[in-house]
Input
Amino acid sequence: MRNIIMAGNWKMNKDAESTLLFCKGLAEGIRDLSAGVKAIVAPPYPFLGLALEALKGSAAQVAAQNVSFNSDGAYTGEVSAPMLASLGIPYCIIGHSERRQYHGETDQTVLSRQIKLASSGITPIVCVGETLAERDAHKTAQVILTQLKGCFETITISDPQSVIIAYEPVWAIGTGRTATPEQAQEVHTLIRTWLAQRYGAAIASDLHILYGGSAKPDNIRKLLEQEDIDGALIGGASLTLEQYLPMLLTANELIKARNPK
Ligand code: PEP
Output
């Protein structure tokens, strides 16, 4: 059974004060949200503890934006999976296109990070996505499948809730240009079909696949209405409660419509 997961990736934005203000407002704003909608915020490392504290007792969860592929030792500036686990962080984004573009992230390093997260009991949000040049060259499917094979090469999945995949077309991230619901659905189907072949139908049907790329209050409904879109990874629009809360409320309406009681 899949819920709707709405994960906000703050990237390198906000400070301590605005983190606290946002998280207090979020806790307040989601009090009546159905259990079928999961709100996740991913603040920069220094504010993870503040966010955890401010969201304690609320239904919102906290994610890190990256993790080291080493466990401990002389790796200045890095943060390990056991460190995140010791704070009680349940999720971590890995393989984001900005890390691939600016920080040398590859499918191989995503795989290594995934292994570290799994051994610390942290759920990875594994990002995949094609560039505009790759889409224009009709290589979208090939790129996505290559990324999936690389990122999951030695990964076994026995619990579909232990991994989240985010499809983020690079050309739609921070550009204001969203994939159409049909374009997104097509790639989500491709991912789910690959999951079924690799891990079996039961895992594939329960594993969450999020869409990311200029998701906003005015386009989120149609994206979430697609059969294989199980939520969103949201950058810019997750930075203000004015935009993020209405997106959560839309998800809430859709979940209620799916499970009327
Ligand atoms: C992201 O950074 O994961 C993202 C989807 O950003 P935006 O929503 O701003 O395009």
